[in-house]
Amino acid sequence: MDRLVASKAATDHFTRTRWWWIRHAPVRVDEGRIYGQRDLPCDCSEVAVFAALAALLPQDAVWVTSHLSRTVQTAKAIQAAGNFASPEIHQDRDFAEQHLGDWQGLDRQSFLLGRQQEPDSFWYAAADERAPNGESFVDVVERVSTGVARVNRAHPGKDIIAVAHGGTIRAALVIALRVPPRSGFAFTIDNCALTRLDHYEGKRGAGWRVTTVNQRPLPASGDKAGGALA
């Protein structure tokens, strides 16, 4: 079916740019605290997870990450596991996690106990609530949209492997589906899971096709392939 769609898109003169979004490996040194854009390292010891993930990815791709080290670490671990030719990794601040401002460093459990939770929201605040000295999720959607549009212009028709964050990938889904930002909170995005979004652009406009969301490369081993909130 994927080949049929690609063939039809070519016939109709659409350019397809495939985005392979991956959430970074688990952060285990957060001490139960909100980290957002704090630059904490991740655990890349599960080599089998990276090998399984690498097997799903195209060899000839543009690699992008956020500027935070956990995404760069994860990208390098995938490249090493898949025998990629060590392509250049482009760091882009537009693909960073939501900046949670003054909430960063606070005890996560205590913070959440003091907040009103919604059944469809697995996050710290409403989409339009801006963290003190930080961002709202609406801000993240706008920022990610800018980054995605820039990469699409620079690399039309290419495969883009984007190693980023849970909030970034939820924002990408909001953009692709053209839904209100709050809707992004309904998606679970696990560590090292793959989300594929294809961008089509032609003379009659542009749009997205959602191919897969939160595809885990291996069954969970304990909690090692999952992850907490940022």
Describe the structure.
The chain has 230 residues and is an alpha/beta fold. The protein has one domain (15-215): Phosphoglycerate mutase-like (Rossmann fold, 3-Layer(aba) Sandwich), CATH 3.40.50. It has six helices and six strands, in the order αβαβαβααβαββ. A hairpin with a 2-residue loop joins strand 5 (194-202) and strand 6 (205-215). The chain is globular, with a radius of gyration of 17 Å.
Q: What is the helix fraction of residues, given as a range?
A: 25-40%
Strand content: 15-25%
Kindly name the structural category.
Answer: alpha/beta
Poorly predicted sequence stretches spanning 5 or more consecutive residues: 220-225
Which value, in Å, is the CA radius of gyration?
A: 17 Å
Task: State the CATH superfamily name.
Answer: Phosphoglycerate mutase-like
Q: Helix and strand succession?
A: HEHEHEHHEHEE
| Second rung of CATH, namely the architecture | 3-Layer(aba) Sandwich
Distance N to C terminus:
36 Å
Number of strands: 6
Helices, by number, come to: 6
Shape: globular
Please state the average pLDDT score: 91
Write the CATH fold name: Rossmann fold
Domain count, please report it: 1
Strand order of the largest sheet: 3-2-4-1-5-6
Structural topology:
Elements: H1 2-11, E1 15-23, H2 47-54, E2 62-65, H3 69-81, E3 89-91, H4 108-113, H5 137-154, E4 159-164, H6 166-177, E5 194-202, E6 205-215
Parallel strand pairs: 1-4, 2-3, 2-4
Antiparallel strand pairs: 1-5, 5-6
